[in-house]
Amino acid sequence: MEGTNPVNKKLAAALSGGAVLAMALSACSSGDDNSEKLDAWAKQVCDAVKPQAKKIEAANLAIQKETSDSSAPKDVQKTDAQAFQDMSDAYKAIGAAVQKAGAPDTGDGKNAEKKQLDAVKELNTLSASYASLKKQVDELDTKDQGKFADGLKDVATELDKLSTSGSDALKNLEEGDVGKAMAQQASCKSASTTPSATAG
Questions:
Q1: Is the dihedral of CA 194, 90, 20, 185 positive or negative?
Q2: Rounded distance, CA 194 to CA 134, Å?
Q3: Do residues 26 and 188 touch, judged by C-beta distance below 8 A?
Q4: 69 vs 122: CA distance, rounded Å
Q5: Beta-carbon contacts of residue 199 (< 8 Å; ≥ 6 apart)
Q6: 87-91, 94-98, 188-192 — which is least confidently predicted?
Q7: Cα dihedral angle (82, 88, 93, 96), rounded to 10 degrees?
Q8: For residue 6, what are the CA distances in angstroms to 64, 84, 136?
């Protein structure tokens, strides 16, 4: 039993890093001077992000809960696979929301459009990465404790890479007036308060 626990904890630690990315969409500094169009854009995106951020947070907590005791490999597999599926769905939904919202009205047409498209691409890539992790977890051998622990270690390594690979496109999208407009939305404010926010 104890073989999986440290690995599981590593998985949970790596995961909390990944969840911070969802909050990137709402961790903006506040400001005042925004056009109505930009405010409308920010509201549309923030309202769509809020339930998805909650879904990612719940998936994160589910994995952490499953790793807090010496759970059976089958239970860990089931919880982790579902959590990764939820995360994949959530990032896909956020990507779709940013795509649907179009480029923010910053008075910088081409550049704003590029930032928006880059962010959508990044979110879709994340969605695919979590879907791939789900597949990896589904294929783990739960009958052999040692193999299962080794497999989980590989998943944790992939997760580490995921949580450190940039959310640069999202950060770029949120620069300047866009970030200020988003910070004023109630749905973005509430999306950014997570009990397990990591430093950095």
A1: negative
A2: 24
A3: yes
A4: 34
A5: none
A6: 188-192
A7: -160
A8: 12, 19, 19
